[in-house]
């Protein structure tokens, strides 16, 4: 299979396609890209997560970079992707590479390429990187210098990525206020690279942090994958629901995504979480600036933009689209439905740790519980409910797409269809700002149907009607 980069990097099954040989191809392609851009002298930062053999794969990347004469900073421990990304920006490196498959199941691993701004590479950059990798594969020419020799020559240097990141975080969040608030916070690190970050940031005051699954276990037992969604967070929800905790936070395998559980043990949708984060910036912190969301993200953000007089930009799915808009517009917040949120002052990329801290800050500065904050949000923007169907299908994808494309419904679930957005799937925009969307997976025979509406019943009706239109 050719090495192709999706919404955020290349991912494959370990030992099947994710092999040392293929990782070295990616590394050589990265080195060639840096040299062609004139950035090789700025160096490369390499990090890795807690998956099986991630540190060995990262070392292989460093060996190839060194073999090309590129000074490489290799993390001395597993680190969250946003931590690695911040360090490459902080050190002025030409680019970064992170060995991680983020929230994928345990048999997967991946290679994320990070440009010098620390965000997700644009489609144009990844297309060029893919060409470089393909050329390397065709030529079979990969330059490798053993790690021991590279370190002895000063071409590879191991470093601790945590201090610089923690220093920046302390400038973005009122950590002292959170520490003194006396919150009881439950954290599920999902056996991932984000382990111990919340505890270290918040220790030393009245607030306590209880961590679940903070040890490394590449099998990610008890969960289908390290993705902070309700079906994977049963233990965290039970822990909070049993009493003694004010909130539950969860980070995925590389800690660039966040899951939120309220004081009753109920999982919040990623749409609710993002709307709360936007409201915190606008209402509580009194900041102003554009908001950026993917087309699968909540229309509550649009309503907040109207209420506070700030523009809202929407993009196709993926931070490779959100990040450039965020940088161009100096946006306040950007977010997508997968649970990734980014903030001004940090890198233009998802950061689950910063997202969690900002939610704690919101609780402290308002004196409200998460459920009370949700009510505060609903009072401002009205009721919004959401759900999504993930449906595997057999047969011809084009036939399904043709059915959706030709449907052109005037109404759905009794609401007028005001627009059909075809930038990334088929998004039916309904009156009052509600919506439903059909998108295909780029890697498997899977169709996703999304809906946000005034009531759960209306959401169900939208999902059922669009599913019928698609014929799946």
Description of the structure:
- Helix 2 links the parallel strand 2 and strand 3 (72-75).
- It is built from 16 helices and 20 strands.
- The two termini are 28 Å apart.
- Helix content is 39%, strand content 21%.
- By secondary structure, it is of the alpha/beta class.
- It has a six-stranded mixed sheet, with helices on both faces.
- It has three domains: 10-161, Alpha-D-Glucose-1,6-Bisphosphate, subunit A, domain 3 (Alpha-D-Glucose-1,6-Bisphosphate, Chain A, domain 3); 173-381, Alpha-D-Glucose-1,6-Bisphosphate, subunit A, domain 3 (Alpha-D-Glucose-1,6-Bisphosphate, Chain A, domain 3), CATH 3.40.120.10; 385-470, 2-Layer Sandwich (TATA-Binding Protein), CATH 3.30.310.
CATH architecture of the largest domain, by name, is 3-Layer(aba) Sandwich
What do we call the CATH topology of the largest domain?
A: Alpha-D-Glucose-1,6-Bisphosphate, Chain A, domain 3
Number of strands: 20
**Anisotropy-based shape:** globular
**Spatial sequence of strands, sheet with the most strands:** 1-5-4-2-3-6
The number of helical segments is 16
Structural class: alpha/beta
Secondary structure: helix percent: 25-40%
Computed over alpha carbons, the radius of gyration is 22 Å
Which percent range describes the beta-strand content?
15-25%
Q: What can be said about the biggest beta sheet? A: 6 strands, mixed
What is the mean pLDDT?
96
